[in-house]
Write a structure and sequence with these properties.
The protein has about 400 residues and is α+β, with helices and mostly antiparallel strands. About 25% of the residues lie in helices and about 35% in strands. The chain has 7 helices and 22 strands. A hairpin with a 5-residue loop joins strand 1 and strand 2.
Length: about 400
């Protein structure tokens, strides 16, 4: 056993403490370095994923490049009420993204010589910074030239990207000059709307650019027949003043998001009577994606030739119903035939052009619990359907109702 002096004990103790500090520091340094390396690795991975996401969005042609507006704050200026402040904020945010649309159409004189004259006018919403504009089909219908006027008075010629009669929606596009940053309007959620909710319309009634009107949601889920004799379902009814020239403009919620596209009014005078209708944004989002990508909406259809029923056809065919749509022919080997749908077998002349139809086949009266009394009802019932969807079709056959499961094909 060794003996140590007091000085030696103190010296040994201090040396041990110093060594412990050095060892602890080294261990802490290594742990910290390892943690930082992991953190850097995670951060780098996150950045890469974000970049990949951005790239995929840019490469995807149907992705809308829009300005995403925040939820609008209510101005604290005591000179305005809360409602007034919201209105002011929405208009400030969105009015520059609303365009005035004017068209030129071709007409013919007494000598059948063509000449160009002014066509219709309406409104549109810039939905993409590349110059894509959403409007109504009837605003640009039969146009040979389309011009869009921006908030600053500049005018550009636009071309049709795609149009859809079933929803009365169309997408047009102009090429903004290099360096121009367009303001856009983002889509909102029309599925969450409530009757009584306040809404705002911006458009160009009677050529008065970017006019704002306010109102409420007066009704939801309205089936309305448009000027192209197509029934648009789930229309939004509003009492916000909508007049000629408002068509194609946005119907906005109080956060400045487009929850509808103003399309038509119900009026005996042709001017606003407090009953206006807008195509819901839920429909517009789906339609716009297809129009930009394909130039048309990719809907599913029943692969059969369909004829509007009439009392004359019913009488001639000895049927017990005169409404619905008659199945004249069914494509051989198609999905409709596989589903059990039957066409007619007896040829008959139909219409003023003496077209041949086949009678004796099924009469479609319902698709997925949606009553089908006319061709407009038939197209409306299939409006939201995609290729490959299976629908339940109720047909009248031998004076009995029969239900069939039919897979839709590409339109």
């Amino acid at each position: 056993m060794k003996l140590y002096s007091r000085d030696q004990l103190i010296k040994c103790t201090l040396t041990g403490i110093f060594a412990a500090i050095v060892v602890t520091s080294i261990i802490a340094y290594k742990i910290n370095k390892s943690t930082n390396q992991k953190s850097d690795s995670v951060s780098q991975t996150s950045y890469s994923d974000d970049e990949a996401s951005k790239t995929s969005k840019v490469d995807e042609s149907v992705t809308i490049q829009e300005n995403q507006p925040p939820i609008l704050p209510v101005a604290s200026d005591s000179s305005y009420s809360q409602t007034e402040s919201q209105n002011i904020n929405v208009y400030s945010l969105c009015n520059e993204a609303v365009v005035n649309i004017n068209t030129k159409v071709t007409a013919y004189d007494w000598f059948l010589e063509p000449y160009v004259q002014d066509g219709g006018s309406g409104s549109g919403s810039i939905i993409d910074k590349r110059g894509y504009i959403l409007t109504n089909v009837h605003v640009i219908q039969d146009a040979t030239k389309i011009y869009v006027s921006l908030f600053d008075g500049t005018q550009y010629e636009a071309e049709v990207v795609g149009q859809d009669l079933d929803s009365d929606l169309a997408v047009i596009k102009f090429n903004p000059p290099s360096g121009m940053t367009l303001k856009t309007i983002s889509f909102g959620d029309s599925g969450s709307l409530k009757v009584g909710q306040r809404v705002i319309a911006i458009g160009n009634p009677f050529g008065l650019e970017r006019t704002m009107t306010t109102g409420i949601v007066s009704g939801l889920g309205r089936p309305i027949q448009n000027s192209n004799n197509r029934i648009i379902r789930n229309m939004i009814q509003t009492d916000a003043a909508i007049n000629p020239g408002n068509s194609g403009g946005p119907l906005l919620d109080t956060n400045g998001r487009m929850i509808g596209i103003n399309t038509m009014i119900k009026s005996s005078s042709g001017s606003s009577s407090g009953v206006g209708f807008a195509v819901p944004s839920e429909t517009a989002v789906r339609v716009v994606a297809d129009l930009i990508k394909y130039g048309k909406v990719q809907r599913g259809k029943i692969d059969a030739t369909i004829i509007q029923m009439s009392s004359r056809i019913a009488q001639y065919s000895r049927l017990d119903i005169s409404t619905g749509v008659l199945v004249s022919e069914v494509k051989k080997g198609g999905q409709a035939e596989k589903g059990g749908l039957k066409g007619g077998s007896e040829a008959a002349y139909y219409g003023s052009r003496r077209d041949i139809i086949y009678i004796g086949g099924d009469v479609i009266t319902k698709i997925d619990n949606i009553s089908v009394g006319t061709l407009a009802d038939y197209y409306s019932a299939l409006e939201s359907k995609k290729t490959g969807d299976i629908v339940t079709v109720t047909v009248r056959r031998n004076k009995k109702d029969v239900q069939l499961k039919i897979q839709l094909v590409e339109s």
